[in-house]
Design a protein that fits this description.
mainly beta; 4-stranded antiparallel sheet
């Protein structure tokens, strides 16, 4: 069982009372690079990407991959307090830019 299996199992059962530890944006190191892993549950989305100050708000720069209804992307070099949103294309083709429901910080500077 991977480190992701238990939180996903509990989430799907409706008993993960610490979902914030899994979903949202969390610092991580992969392949020797520091960055953040972003996770979002959106089972009715066709495509999702992370847009933010670190990629020029470009919807094509940081696509997420889907496993079931859970989307994930690791983005190197993201720093704490970088601004971001999820760029979502729904199954019907609607485009939405949404704040992270599991964000630890929200601030849009001046």
């Amino acid at each position: 069982m991977s480190s992701k299996d238990l939180p996903i199992y509990l989430f799907r059962q409706g008993t993960n009372f610490e979902s914030y530890r899994f979903f949202g944006a969390h610092p991580e190191r992969r392949d020797g690079r520091d960055g953040f892993v972003f996770r979002l549950w959106a089972d009715h989305a066709a495509e999702i990407s992370v847009i933010g100050s670190f990629n020029g708000w470009n919807p094509e720069a940081s696509p997420m991959t889907r496993e079931g209804g859970i989307w994930e992307a690791f983005i190197p070099d993201v720093k704490i307090y970088d601004q971001y949103k999820y760029h979502i294309r729904s199954l019907s083709g609607e485009i939405l830019d949404k704040a992270d429901p599991f964000a630890f910080h929200s601030g849009w500077g001046t």
